[in-house]
Amino acid sequence: MKYTLSQNAISSLHIAIQHFKSFYYTKYSNKLSQSEVDEEIKISLVFLENSIELLLKAILVSIDETCIYKCPESKRIKRAQSCVNNENTLADVLLQDGNFQTIDYHEIVDKYIELTGETSEKFEKVLKQLSNARNSITHFGLEIASYDEIILLFFNTFDIIYNYLYERLCALDNIDNYFTSDDLIVNTIHGSKFLFSEDFVYNNIYDFLDELLMDNNEYVFELRASNTRTKISQFSNLFAETVKDRKFENLLERYDAKTDLNELNILKHQYSFSLEISKEMSFDILTRYSPFYNATIFMDDCGQIIFIVLHDENIFYLYNSDIVYPPMDEREKDAQWIEDEKNNLCMKYNLSKRNLIKAFESYVVKLIN
User: Fold this and answer.
1) In terms of C-beta density within 10 A (0-12 exposed, 13-18 middle, 19 or more buried), how is residue 65 classed?
2) Digit-coded pLDDT (tens) for 219-231
3) pTM confidence score
4) Which of 21, 87, 118, 205 has the highest CB neighbour count under 10 A?
């Protein structure tokens, strides 16, 4: 048995994804017992962390082949480098020697940040949270308060692969095909397969991640809303009260505006609605959930931000400029509302009925003008 570093990374990612599918896509079917779900989560978590470590190593080796080793300037490394040729990489030579050590997971993340210039706080936090969870479950035990929190960790990690590592992974020899293959026949670690499995789940990495992050955003939001600590339900209650408030009704009457806001939908955490002004203009207000920030972004159908609700902090940022929130297939800017506020592109408010009504009035006036 012999795996290259890249093959090992893809193998671990494949195992992680397969076991993730085993418990995630059976969420409505009750095919697995709770103990089986727990075991699938454990296996997926362990191999996902291992795959991240190996993927980062594969990228780092393409930049500096010695940077992943404990003693890159040692005589053993120097001697191994002299044996590198077209058939054997430095890793191949060292594997034959069998006496070497690579830096640990956290050091790998730090080294990646150092050598690539990665500046995202989200990147570092998510990958280190993943490692902490993996260490807990393999060395002692894993205590997750609710199912939504473990799903959150998986989603944030898959987001890092899809939006933060993807381009560099596509540039690596022997690994790029696994990330770019999306035809009817796709490349997998076990050879060519049809794009869809028998259960109509994607067999390839690219479409699996794309579908998971794009189409399942609403599901993750509803799942997180079930956890009272996220304060999403509190916002839903406040939002529902706001649209029933006489002052909100007066606002609509004043501008001859109508909405299809529905209290029942709001309480189900469904916030998207249409806004009609003077029977001449109709606008769709859409929402998107950021799992990492536990934030709901209200925006128009062009992706321009209206306001952003930070559920944990019980505040929202009302935008006065045309700023687009990055789509799901792009990386998020780190807490962009903080920088936007400094640049007078938005203003921060506490969550209250009065302030939400003010936010809607500000948006209606902006549309009219």
Assistant:
1) middle
2) 999 999 999 999 9
3) 0.90
4) 205
Please enumerate in sequence order all residues whose Cβ is within 8 A of that of 96, keeping only pairs 6 or more positions apart, or say none: none
- CB-count burial class (<10 Å; 0-12, 13-18, 19+) for 154: buried
Contact 130, 49 (CB under 8 A): yes
SS3 258: strand
Q: How far is CA 110 from CA 9, 58, 113, 147, in A?
A: 19, 15, 5, 29
How far is residue 120's CA from residue 131's CA, in Å, rounded to a whole number? 17
Rounded CA separation 176/335 (Å):
31
Tell me the three-class secondary structure of 297-355, residue by residue: EEEECCCEEEEEEECCCCEEEEECCCCECCCCCCCCCCCHHHHHHHCCCEEEEECCHHH
- pLDDT digit string, tens, across residues 242-267: 999 999 999 999 999 999 999 999 99
Q: Is 344 exposed, middle or buried (0-12, 13-18, 19+ CB in 10 A)?
A: exposed
> Shortest CA distance to 254 belongs to which of 246, 262, 265, 244?
246
> What is d(CA 278, CA 121) in angstroms, rounded to the nearest whole number?
45
Burial class (CB in 10 A: 0-12, 13-18, 19+), 301: exposed
333 by Cβ neighbours in 10 Å (0-12 / 13-18 / 19+) ranks as: middle
Q: Per this entry, what is the length of the chain? A: 369
SS3 content of the chain, % helix, strand, coil (to 5): 55, 15, 30
Strand partners, 307: 298, 318
Residue 300 backbone dihedrals phi, psi, to 5 degrees: -85, 180
CA dihedral for 178, 184, 190, 191, sign (positive or negative): negative
Retrieve residue 152's tokens.
Answer: 């959150």
DSSP-derived secondary structure letter, 231 = -
